[in-house]
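Hey, sorry for the delay on this. The queue was backed up all week. Below are the sequences that define the complex (chains, strands and the ligand SMILES where applicable).
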Amino acid sequence: MANLTATRPLQPWTAPTATDPVESTLRLPGSKSLTARALVLSAVSDGPSTLRHPLRARDTELMAAGLRAMGAHASIVDDERWLVRPRPLQGPAHVDVGLSGTVMRFVPPLAGLAEGPVTFDGDPYARVRPLGPLVGALRSIGLRIDASDGGRLPLTVYGTGQVAGGEVVIDASASSQFVSGLLLGAARFDRGIVVRHEGPPVPSAPHLRMTVQMLLAAGAAIDDSTPNVWAVEPGRLSGRGWDIEPDLSGAVPFFAAALVTGGGVTLLGWPRSSLQPVDTLRTLLQQMGGEVTLGTDGLTVRGTGVIHGLDADLSDVSEFTPVLAALAVLADSPSRLRGVAHIRNHETDRLAALARELNALGADVNESTDGLEIRPRLLRGGAFETYADHRMAHAAAVIGLAVPGIELSDVACTSKTMPEFPALWSTMVAGGGRQ
Ligand SMILES: O=C(O)C1=C[C@@H](OP(=O)(O)O)[C@@H](O)[C@H](O)C1
Ligand SMILES: C=C(OP(=O)(O)O)C(=O)O
């Protein structure tokens, strides 16, 4: 596997082992996906917007910086609020996408609305992540784009301040973010957009629903009633206040800790009705032996002392795969995690990375074409390469609760979505009740 990790200093970390069941009540940062969409929609709306409880982490700071580079005003009011004021978008500008799928797929369509060239590049592995179908779709609606072979980074969008829009056909089976990216700025295109997906199924349906719901909330006229077709009419979006929910994917390792240790973890501030796939997570954790309840104080997961194997299609919630694989190696029966071929294109080739690192600890894991087959074995401690991938680090931390001596090559990669992860995790394991 290519070692295309970031150039920043690595931070080796030994995952703490739990001697007692964890009992913890946590307030976790805001959702990456909701924050990214709120920033983009705010930048193309008519008036100012406020994001309450946004995620402050590398991905969302890069998103704000990218929009700022193109002329939008995005500032931090205080720890709880970001203010975005739309302004005419302009180049020349440079956008650093880091390793963020949302930045590399949501911002190029907006660059077409800027007057002047906008260049995009990112971390070494960002140049490997697929972008070609989006570049092709944008070219077909009138954008001039110079890109590397296969439509990858680095690329330049020669914005003219106007995007014709219209009908596009795209194969979005590699990432739902291609579709979300095309839709988020489309109300500002002269003819809006009609996106038609042709190819194997688009993954991450809940993220597409989130895009549609947030566009509707911003005042867009959007039709997703035909499967695999999304239409946004040209029109104005209104600035508004966005309440960002806590990040469900970021919560998964903490909930997994409840299962591994037979304890309980409550995530404070969980809304009654969510744009994130909480019901799917509930079903998966229940199948693995956990109990999930939504109460007035938040979302609580309790472990029952046993972890069962899981046979599940994770295409809707592929972000959960690394942590569920970590639970699966600690389970009392084998697991099959299916439907996630496309996570070979995430922050690293997650199927190869998980198989390699879990096998090195003594598990018996096979990669299939679209997932992992996992047979639990007695595990031993040892080195765990994180491949600059925050969710590989989460997986290692979960195993470390039960297996002493799990040595992560780098825990700083968790700053992609939760810079406070190592501190929160260590406090939880040390018995910190309310954080
Ligand atoms: O739109 C989004 O915010 C996301 C969509 C999904 O991408 P894929 O469809 O590429 O899996 C998800 O895995 C990613 O973490 C966030
Ligand atoms: C796949 C992920 O991120 P990205 O938005 O970079 O695609 C992820 O967070 O698991």
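Residues 32-231 form a domain with the UDP-n-acetylglucosamine1-carboxyvinyl-transferase; Chain fold (CATH 3.65.10.10).

I'll add it to the shared folder too.

S.
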